[in-house]
Each structure stands twice: as C-alpha cells, then as structure tokens.
Design a protein that fits this description.
The chain is an alpha+beta fold. It has one domain (about 1-100). The chain is built from 4 helices and 6 strands; from the N terminus they run βαββααββαβ. It has a 4-stranded antiparallel β-sheet with strand order 2-3-5-4, with helices on one face. A hairpin with a 4-residue loop joins strand 2 (about 10-15) and strand 3 (about 20-25). It is elongated and about 45 Å long.
Length: about 100
C-alpha cells in the first residue's frame, strides 16, 4: 500500500473559478493510473470527508487518454473574500495526497 502522493507524478490544486477548487492527479504511466482507478480509493465519499463538503458536490473525472484524474469541489468561501485563506486554491492537495491506495 502506498499514499497517492507516492504513485502520482503530479498532484496539484488550483482555482476553478471563484467558487470551486480543482485537483489534478497525473500519472506517468497507464498502469499507475489504472491501479488507482481500480482501487476505488478516489471516490466522492472520501474526497467529501477530507474537505468537509457534500459528496453530491464532488466531481471526479478520469481522463484515461492522458492518465489523469480531475477532482473538483466547492470552495468554503469565495476566492478573494475576507475569509479566504488561499486566494489561488494552491497547496490544497495535501489531504488527498495522503489517501492510501491498496
């Protein structure tokens, strides 16, 4: 078993407009991508728990042609608002980086 961060070649977060954050999970080869996808470890329930959002608001989109997964969640506050701690949505990938892939 390994952490997602040990399998993915790129794991990053960024704004997806002022209301959402998106995560890019990229793999250097097809077998790593397929291993993660087949494990079921990246799912709406897990992502929702990690970021304290409603699972119905989590989008997970696999892009098998480029060995990547895009995950989008709603922001807790609007980007740039007074309560926003990370205007660019960067460095938000740490909770999913630690997901264990069986």
């Amino acid at each position: 078993m390994k952490k997602l961060s040990e399998i993915a070649s790129i794991l990053r977060s960024k704004n997806a407009g002022p209301l959402f954050i998106t995560f890019d999970i990229m793999f250097s080869d097809k077998s790593s991508f397929e291993k993660v996808m087949q494990s079921g470890a990246i799912n709406k329930k897990v992502i929702a728990q990690e970021y304290e959002v409603n699972p119905k608001e989590v989008e997970i989109i696999p892009y098998d042609i480029v060995n990547s997964i895009k995950v989008t969640i709603p922001r807790k506050c609007i980007s740039g608002s007074l309560n926003d701690m990370d205007i660019y949505g960067c460095q938000q990938q740490v909770p999913i980086a630690n997901i264990i892939i069986p």
